[in-house]
């Protein structure tokens, strides 16, 4: 079982104002806080340095959206579709993705801290050169996700599908993938040093060492 540590959950007030996010799209310094955005579609929008604080997104679909260098703090995405959205170079802190579809979400070069992905479809997500600190991937599908040259600090993969994930140039020291499912991974011998695996998984990794395991 993956090691358990405490992450800081999003801190939202009980009373949130319902707003239309479209209202801020053309402001010079777009900023939203203390609000809920629900049951809507946000499409064809590109905004740099959008700031969102204490916001609940519920049943929202994002289509052709680019929020480069977004600043997310105390934000919950619940039952949302963020497929192919771009949060590249973002600051993502105390954020929860709960039962979301995040296929191809671009988080490359982002700083991600105290973030959880629970019951998400996160295939093909891009975490290239991303720093992840106190992040949990729980019961999620991460097939073909890209973690190239990531920095992991207290990251958990709990009962996830990590088939064909790319961990190239990323140290997995202290990372426990023993509860995860996969048929193949893109890793190097250097990457897997200190990685925690099941006995069954260890047989597969032995081939990287040039070993032949007898049954």
UniProtKB/TrEMBL annotation:
<protein>
    <submittedName>
        <fullName>Pentapeptide repeat-containing protein</fullName>
    </submittedName>
</protein>
<dbReference type="InterPro" id="IPR001646">
    <property type="entry name" value="5peptide_repeat"/>
</dbReference>
<dbReference type="InterPro" id="IPR052949">
    <property type="entry name" value="PA_immunity-related"/>
</dbReference>
<dbReference type="Pfam" id="PF13599">
    <property type="entry name" value="Pentapeptide_4"/>
</dbReference>
């Amino acid at each position: 079982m993956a090691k358990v540590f405490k992450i800081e959950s999003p801190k939202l007030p009980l009373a949130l104002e319902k707003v239309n996010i479209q209202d801020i799209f053309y402001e010079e310094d777009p900023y939203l806080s203390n609000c809920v955005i629900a049951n809507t579609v946000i499409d064809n929008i590109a905004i740099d340095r959008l700031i969102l604080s204490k916001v609940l997104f519920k049943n929202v679909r994002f289509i052709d959206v680019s929020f480069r260098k977004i600043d997310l703090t105390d934000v919950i995405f619940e039952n949302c579709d963020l497929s192919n959205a771009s949060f590249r170079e973002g600051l993502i802190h105390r954020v929860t993705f709960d039962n979301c579809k995040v296929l191809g979400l671009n988080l490359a070069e982002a700083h991600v801290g105290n973030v959880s992905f629970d019951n998400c479809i996160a295939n093909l997500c891009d975490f290239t050169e991303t720093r992840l600190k106190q992040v949990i991937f729980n019961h999620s599908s991460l097939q073909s996700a890209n973690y190239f040259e990531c920095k992991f600090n207290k990251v958990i993969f709990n009962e996830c599908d990590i088939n064909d994930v790319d961990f190239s140039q990323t140290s997995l020291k202290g990372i426990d993938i023993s509860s995860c499912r996969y048929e193949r991974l893109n890793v190097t011998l250097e990457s897997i040093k200190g990685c925690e695996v099941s006995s069954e998984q260890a047989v597969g990794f032995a081939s990287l060492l040039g070993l032949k395991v007898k049954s």
